[in-house]
Amino acid sequence: MLLCISLLAFYVKVKACISARVGEWLCKKSNQATLLKFCSILIMIDFIFVMLTNYVTNNMDSFLDQSAGYLINMTALLLKRELNTAIKNNDIDVTPEQWAILNRLNENSGLTQKEVAKLTFKDNANITRIVDKLESKGLAVRQADSNDRRTWKISITKEGTAIRDLVEPLAVKILQKATKGLSDKEVVEFNDTSKKILENLTK
Description:
Largest sheet: 3 strands, antiparallel
Mean pLDDT: 82
CATH architecture of the largest domain: Orthogonal Bundle
Strand order of the largest sheet: 1-3-2
CATH topology of the largest domain: Arc Repressor Mutant, subunit A
Helix content: over 70%
């Protein structure tokens, strides 16, 4: 981007300089032959600039293409879209967001809403809405904490575990598609790098 701006500035400066110099000269010796030469010079400058701009544009990645944040976000969106499509095609009544929470509850049943929010990087309002849906489907259940009546523990049900298990092979298949052409070492390195980025952003 900076190179393109520099080229544009250089182009404008050179063209203005030549136009001024040649213009002054034409005022003294104006004829058809010199006018044609003048026009030819300007056309050549324009042509060279266009060629240089096209070359730089075609050989330079944009800021977004080099941004880890943009690439991670786009990857997450595409993975979510793939998983959502696979779930619908298999007539499973759950969303990717709901399945993510079922996974966390399957790992540690009896979590508080705050703990689920932290593990899934969602705010309390979203967690409340999603858990309400899971509870209405019979996939999760809330129970009052015996030590603190103001706190509710969220647990996965047998039906929730069954749904979670149905979606897992679909997710695995999508990840295999996403990591096609990558070695096991590269996948491990990618996961390690992603975890470091998450740690940096959650400190």
